[in-house]
Amino acid sequence: MELEALVSRKFSKYHAYVWLHRKLRDCTSLEECATVSRELIDSYIGNRMIWEELNYYKENHSLLGKHPAFAEFRRRSELLKLPVKELVRRLRQVENNIWRVKSELAKGDKPHLDAIRRERLAGYEKELADINRLLE
């Protein structure tokens, strides 16, 4: 199942990379070029990480497990094992974490940490969606 998800993400990252590469040629401002370039680099790095995982599996017939998706898969399987009471407790904790990260981003006092904070926020929001889905 993990490999299937990785292959699906690989296609997405590759198509995003190709589309952003074309878009980079049509930039009209410096800010737009910087934004598109950052997204292009992120897509390339994501695509490359997935390629490394799949290539390792091809050669060794086992998972490397370094891609962030594997941490997401492990987190989801751990959530499935939790009783309802623990899920509710985790729900409150994740909501507090989301509030904290959003307030850190709103302050804007450390812009060099914004990318990391956005990644954390996205992870917490995915976890919140998973918990809500399990509680329904």
Automatic annotation (TrEMBL):
It comes from the Bacteria. This is Uncharacterized protein. It comes from Bacteroides stercoris.
